[in-house]
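Hmm, how's this folded?
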Amino acid sequence: METIKFNKKNMKVIAHRGLSSFETENSLAAFISAGNRSYYGIESDVHLTKDGKYVIFHDDTLQRATGFEGVVEETNFDTIRSLTLFEPVYNGYQGDDGVKLSNKKRPDLIIPTMQEYILTCKKYDKVAVLELKNHFEKKNIQEIIEIIESLEYLDSVIFISFDIENLIFVKELNPNQTVQFLSCNRDDFAKKLPTVIEYKMDVDLGHWLLTKDDVIYLHSLGIKINVWTPGNIADAEKYAEWGVDYLTTNYLE
């Protein structure tokens, strides 16, 4: 399999959950696969375990990706670390929703720690686009920042979240940190836009929400725009033509 190349102009392209069309989403294999290609950044998701560790995983529950019935935030790190991940189903490119997982496992596919993800991005000189899943307490946001700072990579991290309070915490702790407010609902985005402006955030939008007029308006406010995850070249090249700043994708490059 190969990625699908498109004319991205000046748009920066980010691998969604790593290169999730080739390797299991949010695995070190997916991050390394993206690292060996031309991507600007690698996106992933961080959760807090029951015993206070930070792990890279998308869903709230472990069932879909591991077969284990449990909630990430209600499960201890050692249990999570003992699980292996399902391989993806290699049946072509699957559009906006990403790649489906099979019922076959590989023993080397385990759930990474946040530190392992950051160090992989650092090794391959990729920006880490880290989604803060669910709501974190401010003390946890501070701990995440301190961990990444100890790895000497905070300047190369973009924090993203649907929970705008998470991003407010980031900005209160580190006003110069780049953050992007995630939204897939136009009414919600309109409601939160004043806060985005107040705290000097950027935005990360479901691509179907975006119009050319939005791009012009948001850029006039100094707000950069990320879109996720268009499923075809025509849409991706349209956003590049509009001057969208970032594009997050499962397989385009």
About this structure: The two ends are 13 Å apart (CA to CA). Residues 138-150 form the longest helix (13 residues). The chain is about 35% helix and 25% strand.
